[in-house]
Specification:
This protein has 368 residues and is of the alpha/beta class. The chain is built from nine helices and 16 strands. The protein has two domains: 228 residues, RNA 3'-terminal phosphate cyclase domain (UDP-n-acetylglucosamine1-carboxyvinyl-transferase, Chain), CATH 3.65.10.20; 102 residues, RNA 3'-terminal phosphate cyclase, insert domain (Dihydrodipicolinate Reductase, domain 2). The strands form four sheets. A four-stranded mixed β-sheet has the order 1-2-4-3, with helices on one face. Strands 5-6-8-7 form a four-stranded mixed β-sheet, covered by helices on one side. The longest helix has 16 residues.
């Protein structure tokens, strides 16, 4: 039983989500106390409970008695099963945070797996589903035969009501491999994550998705125009599209991503894609939404970093599956440090962190 202190580092829910993912993958049970004691409302939230309930179905996991606000969890995973599953997080519970606990084991399911998930597609302190689709999935294709996310409905705070489908066709199913055999196979057949050099900035793309009620005010167009005017200085192709959709609660987002090349080609094994986003909020103008997203993007483009801090948080567990992986980031967040703490409990790896070129180089090494 792996023991974890939920108050470690920033004391948030990421610690529980990463532990759930790696426990399910490796078959190692864990016990965590002081869950989210670093937050205003301590204990498990709706998306944590939804992830645990989902894993009870996907891998026949067993837990102690838990509910909203529980600050202690004992988790005993079973074997991962493929198939079709439907989960409803409820209201605007984050789909992307829910998936942080689910995607890793699903990549190595015995066969194809399809997840239909209802909840919030974007919100504060979380990556949006568009972000996962454009930034994370290109990095995960090395592990699978196919992976795709389709957004059917967008859901904003507080009512939520979003719906997505995630389809995964595993390439290295655990049904034929033990965990040591899986890790050995991955090290031999899958390219390590190598994001050390930005290369040449080729284009910036984006999506501005806004509730239908705001179409008359031209909110999406104003965000688009402001974003384009702020990004023209790079003198590269800009491709930002707008979308108005029917939603239960009024909201919207601006998601931007920059794509880089090396020697005139985009590296399909290690694509350099840097993202940024901003939410529509009360008393925030369309122009301010655009400026927030653009400023966040530019701060990384003008550094030597090869990915943004949100993608760093997501990629750390996958680096641990491929020791030898190296990435260059602008800085190391408390979130990332917490994730490293959890990962090193489940897998025989060590993260080496060094300051380089005004940023941080992170390398994952195997412990023999």
């Amino acid at each position: 039983m792996i023991e974890l202190d939920g108050s470690y580092g920033e004391g948030g829910g990421a610690l529980v989500r990463v532990a759930l993912a790696l426990s399910t993958l490796t078959g190692q049970p864990f016990h965590v106390t002081n869950i989210r004691t670093g937050r205003e409302q301590a204990g498990l939230k709706a998306q944590h409970l939804a992830a645990i309930i989902a894993l009870k179905k996907i891998c026949q996991a067993q837990t102690n008695e838990i509910q909203l606000g529980s600050t202690e969890l004992s988790f005993q995973p079973g074997k991962i099963k493929s198939g079709r599953y439907e989960f409803d997080i409820g209201t605007a519970g984050s789909i992307t945070l829910f998936l942080q606990a689910i995607i890793i084991p699903c990549l190595f399911a015995p066969d194809k797996i399809t997840l239909t998930i209802k909840g919030g597609t974007s919100g504060k302190w979380q990556a949006s589903v568009d972000y996962l689709q454009q930034m994370l999935l290109p990095q995960l294709r090395r592990f699978v035969s196919r992976i795709e996310i389709k957004i059917f409905k967008r859901g904003y705070y507080p009512a939520g009501g979003g719906e997505i489908i995630l389809k995964i066709a595993p390439k290295y199913p655990l049904k034929n491999l033990s965990i040591p055999e899986l890790l050995s196979t991955l090290s031999q057949k899958v390219s390590s994550i190598n994001l050390q050099d930005q290369g040449k900035l080729e284009q910036i793309r984006g999506i501005i998705a806004v509730s239908q009620e705001l179409e008359e005010k031209g909110v999406a167009q104003r965000i688009k125009q402001t974003s384009e005017s702020l990004l023209r200085k790079y003198n590269i192709p800009l491709s930002l599209r707008t979308e108005y959709t029917k939603t239960l609660s009024v909201g919207g987002e601006c998601v931007l991503w920059a794509i880089y090349s090396h020697n005139g080609k985009i590296d399909e094994h290690n694509p350099i894609i840097i993202g940024a986003d901003a939410l529509l909020e009360k008393n925030k103008s369309s122009e301010d939404v655009a400026k927030e997203a653009v400023d966040e993007l530019i701060s990384i483009l003008d550094s030597d970093a090869c990915l943004d801090e949100h993608l760093l948080d997501q990629l750390l567990p996958f680096m641990a599956l491929l020791p030898g992986s190296k990435i260059m980031v602008k800085n190391l967040t408390p979130h990332a440090q917490t994730n490293i703490y959890v990962i090193e409990k489940f897998l025989a790896v060590q993260f080496i962190i060094q300051e380089q070129r005004g940023g941080i180089m992170i390398e994952c090494k195997k412990i023999e």
